[in-house]
Amino acid sequence: MCIPVKGYNRAIIYDILRKDYFFVPNEYYTILNTDDFIPFLKIKDTDERQELVNFLIQEEIIFELSDPDQRKRFTPLDRNLHTPNQFSNLVVHANIDHNFFDFIAEEYLMNISIIAPELDANLLKIVEKINTLETDGIYLYIENFNAELFQEYCEAFSAHQLIFSVNFFGTSTTAKTELISNIYYNFFEESFADYKSKLTIDKLDINGEHFFEAYNYHSYYFGKIYIDAAGHIKNGLNNSASYGNIQCMSKAQFLNTISSSAFLELGNIKKSDTLVCKDCEFRYMCVDSRVPIKGDEKWYHETECRYNPFMSKWDDEPGYLNLSNAGITISASGCEINKKKLKQEFKKAWSV
Prior knowledge:
By secondary structure, this protein is of the alpha/beta class. It has helices at 29-32, 46-58, 121-130, 150-157, 192-197, 208-216, 251-258, 261-264, 339-350, and strands at residues 2-6, 10-15, 20-25, 89-93, 108-116, 134-142, 163-169, 177-180, 183-188, 224-227, 233-234, 293-294, 299-300, 307-308, 313-314, 328-331, 334-337.
């Protein structure tokens, strides 16, 4: 399952099944973006055409049919998202009132994430409570790593089959990931505060479920409920807007709150309706936790992403410029591009 996605400067072929991607020039996008036979003859240069065909066959992105009638066996890809539940992800803190889980006892959640300041007995009690719920997996985020307790808690966590990963922050260990008793232990030097607010290239994820979610909805806010450390109901970790407090609610009030149009609004935002994101070739593989703001015609962000699609550069790459320095102005009224300046800066950045 390979899907071409056009960006401002270049396109990407998303290889959904193999979780990989390949850059191609934008002029090939219109040729490859079809549910029919690919019209390679639109490329007039014979050598260029053959080079592209050879590349696509070598990477097993395309294949040849011996009989044109075999085309009837291939139906167009349905890009709609089919999900049985309105919500799939719950994020809570380890200090949450255990009575809250009675609110969601009858709900199915794909995964539940727990944020804890450290490894302690209270965290294990939360995990034990979640084990009684209908969920596929538990993700733990530990803000302060204590190496002395690591082995002890590895043994304790191994008794809980629902735990998929444990993520530690502020670590100095050279290890990045360890698989112990079928649980992934990930170690990050950065703080949890930095991690949750920044998109980095290692957070890009290609899979069918993610692609179709990002294609139809907001890949971070769709299906997500976040209960902060004080009990406030929010859409995500970086959103300051609260929709009430679970300590002052009944189960019925909570379910009505998370089903309201106001709560669901951010989750229904598409990348195609968001400035800068709509021009980004990575838009269907990223998870962007920045809070969108509604503009005159499109949504936009006050803070910049770490990737500039107009320069095709990440902020840690040589030649990177932020939007303003590249000649791009983003505001509620829209996106203004100084094409002359952008062309100059782009050429300068990529001529090295």
